[in-house]
Amino acid sequence: MPEASVPLHFVRAALRGAERHGHDTHALLLRAGIRPALLNDPRTRIAPAPYTRLIQLLWEELDDEYMGFGNSRSRRGTFAMMCLAIIHCRTLERALQRGSRFYQLFPEAPHISLELHGDMAHLRYNDAGRFDPDHFLCESLLVIWHRLGSWLIGQRIQLAAANFAYPRPGHGDEYRLLFPCPQTFDSAATELIFQRRYLDMPLLQDERTLKEFLKHSPADLLSRPDDGSSLLGQIRRLLGRDCRHWPDLEQTAEQLHMSPQTLRRHLREEGASFQEIKDQLRRDLAIYLLERDELSLQAISEQLGFSEPSAFHRAFKKWTGQTPGAYRQSEH
Asked: Which keywords label this protein (predicted)?
């Protein structure tokens, strides 16, 4: 199953720190395999791989894991050292607390703190007024810490809520994949909330598995906003790649062992609908299939369930601002 495509908003936002420090972002985009001209159309989306390459190039070019958004640099290797500092903790709670204390050794670093309130744990972000006009660093760090915690205990931490101390941004629809849970904006704090029981779980990883994890992380954590175990991810997996044989909502609910009414309610709570999930998956499948030259546009159109290629062309241009042929040409 292809991973969710990445909107160009995140590409533009990721470059803001490099622009701030006078780096040649045009050259960085080309090295990542992203045509700079694509940034002119806000509807365009790209596959996760070039986005991951861009994040890695930004770290290398700036020697900064905060990609130019912090008051001072977080040199490459800082995240890895933090992971080494927490990998031998007995429980997730101790690991998160130690990781928080690690970054507090750097006075100008964004602070991630763990707070406990009854049965709920709050992973709170404090930006202390840093340069982050698109909330890119904030979103990135929350995703990274959530995914890191899930990896440490060997299961996805189900989020109960996500609160943000700023108004709902223009790319707010993307938050459903970044944080698949009820979201509140203009909140008193920016934080992820989950059941406290996760904190008592033992770490299932060690230095050997950490070495493999660090080969691609945290860059790949940012380009994979959903790991497949959320409700949205489960539905995407059940739908599969052949749109011509997709189950309907009732059949999907049956496979998930719930009633259609319960499925609709859970989707409403995550700010999604069954039709939206199908539309987004069809879009991501189109991007995924267009990267494979062995498939003709006619074959892709049929696999996506369009009655004729012209309907596919119209839909793809609505999704990305380009025709399928122009998009495929831009990838080479």
From this structure: DNA-binding, Transcription, Transcription regulation
